[in-house]
């Protein structure tokens, strides 16, 4: 099936997204991501979780919606521009910081011990708060290392989250949405289907109703977050989930929420749950 390219003004985009009939387009190819000549293979299609019944027939990795050149970058760790930041994150992991004279490795040993962490984030902590990976990192820094908290969108934080995420590469996303996580999940779901801004667009208008379409220069995916943090070619930098949320809401011409806000944590949980079953890809490469 040929993909349809649509180049529209903001008003026309709003009209398109208001159409009641979905224009979902199945990717022409659903090849796995073969990394480092077969060292690791990541499936790009997964069954939709039960809570998405009627919303998505299958889950498709955002990698399938990228051009061949961008796809190729992600298949080779030497060509993936995000991997240099992974190396920097590993260095930070092993470097003591703060008055306690500890590093991350002082408690957790090698960063390989973080295998599986990315697949279950965000996660409710022992006090019943929904925390993103960034929260857990800063909690360790301030309480155990007696170091300053890192800026949510600062380079050191993004490097650390990238380095930790890579340890789970290939593991299926499996965030909890029941028990104490349920109220946060419901809040995130409500946000996902709420129209924002002057354009009156919801997350679902792009990523559920119109994935596979082209809007301006953007090839819409299903909006899964299993590849975060991503190296975004447009920005020539790592991009965190909350930064991407902020950009999407800003594009609706609305006032957005701060990164690290309770609202974005809830949205992060719901969006992550939509990708339950897809393998962790981070660090992925996107436009």
From TrEMBL:
<dbReference type="GO" id="GO:0046872">
    <property type="term" value="F:metal ion binding"/>
</dbReference>
<keyword id="KW-0249">Electron transport</keyword>
<feature type="signal peptide">
    <location>
        <begin position="1"/>
        <end position="23"/>
    </location>
</feature>
<feature type="binding site" description="axial binding residue">
    <location>
        <position position="248"/>
    </location>
    <ligand>
        <name>heme c 2</name>
    </ligand>
</feature>
<dbReference type="GO" id="GO:0020037">
    <property type="term" value="F:heme binding"/>
</dbReference>
<keyword id="KW-0813">Transport</keyword>
<comment type="subunit">
    <text>Heterodimer of SoxA and SoxX.</text>
</comment>
<feature type="binding site" description="covalent">
    <location>
        <position position="107"/>
    </location>
    <ligand>
        <name>heme c 1</name>
    </ligand>
</feature>
<feature type="binding site" description="covalent">
    <location>
        <position position="104"/>
    </location>
    <ligand>
        <name>heme c 1</name>
    </ligand>
</feature>
<keyword id="KW-0808">Transferase</keyword>
<dbReference type="GO" id="GO:0016669">
    <property type="term" value="F:oxidoreductase activity, acting on a sulfur group of donors, cytochrome as acceptor"/>
</dbReference>
<dbReference type="GO" id="GO:0042597">
    <property type="term" value="C:periplasmic space"/>
</dbReference>
<feature type="binding site" description="axial binding residue">
    <location>
        <position position="140"/>
    </location>
    <ligand>
        <name>heme c 1</name>
    </ligand>
</feature>
<feature type="binding site">
    <location>
        <position position="244"/>
    </location>
    <ligand>
        <name>substrate</name>
    </ligand>
</feature>
<protein>
    <recommendedName>
        <fullName>SoxAX cytochrome complex subunit A</fullName>
        <ecNumber>2.8.5.2</ecNumber>
    </recommendedName>
</protein>
<dbReference type="InterPro" id="IPR025710">
    <property type="entry name" value="SoxA"/>
</dbReference>
<keyword id="KW-0732">Signal</keyword>
<dbReference type="InterPro" id="IPR036909">
    <property type="entry name" value="Cyt_c-like_dom_sf"/>
</dbReference>
<dbReference type="GO" id="GO:0019417">
    <property type="term" value="P:sulfur oxidation"/>
</dbReference>
<keyword id="KW-0408">Iron</keyword>
<keyword id="KW-0574">Periplasm</keyword>
<dbReference type="InterPro" id="IPR009056">
    <property type="entry name" value="Cyt_c-like_dom"/>
</dbReference>
<feature type="binding site" description="axial binding residue">
    <location>
        <position position="108"/>
    </location>
    <ligand>
        <name>heme c 1</name>
    </ligand>
</feature>
<keyword id="KW-0479">Metal-binding</keyword>
<feature type="domain" description="Cytochrome c">
    <location>
        <begin position="88"/>
        <end position="173"/>
    </location>
</feature>
<dbReference type="GO" id="GO:0016740">
    <property type="term" value="F:transferase activity"/>
</dbReference>
<feature type="binding site" description="axial binding residue">
    <location>
        <position position="207"/>
    </location>
    <ligand>
        <name>heme c 2</name>
    </ligand>
</feature>
<keyword id="KW-0349">Heme</keyword>
<feature type="binding site" description="covalent">
    <location>
        <position position="203"/>
    </location>
    <ligand>
        <name>heme c 2</name>
    </ligand>
</feature>
<dbReference type="GO" id="GO:0070069">
    <property type="term" value="C:cytochrome complex"/>
</dbReference>
<dbReference type="GO" id="GO:0009055">
    <property type="term" value="F:electron transfer activity"/>
</dbReference>
<feature type="binding site" description="covalent">
    <location>
        <position position="206"/>
    </location>
    <ligand>
        <name>heme c 2</name>
    </ligand>
</feature>
<dbReference type="Pfam" id="PF21342">
    <property type="entry name" value="SoxA-TsdA_cyt-c"/>
</dbReference>
<comment type="similarity">
    <text>Belongs to the SoxA family.</text>
</comment>
<feature type="active site" description="Cysteine persulfide intermediate">
    <location>
        <position position="248"/>
    </location>
</feature>
<comment type="function">
    <text>C-type diheme cytochrome, which is part of the SoxAX cytochrome complex involved in sulfur oxidation. The SoxAX complex catalyzes the formation of a heterodisulfide bond between the conserved cysteine residue on a sulfur carrier SoxYZ complex subunit SoxY and thiosulfate or other inorganic sulfur substrates. This leads to the liberation of two electrons, which may be transferred from the SoxAX complex to another cytochrome c that then channels them into the respiratory electron transport chain. Some electrons may be used for reductive CO(2) fixation.</text>
</comment>
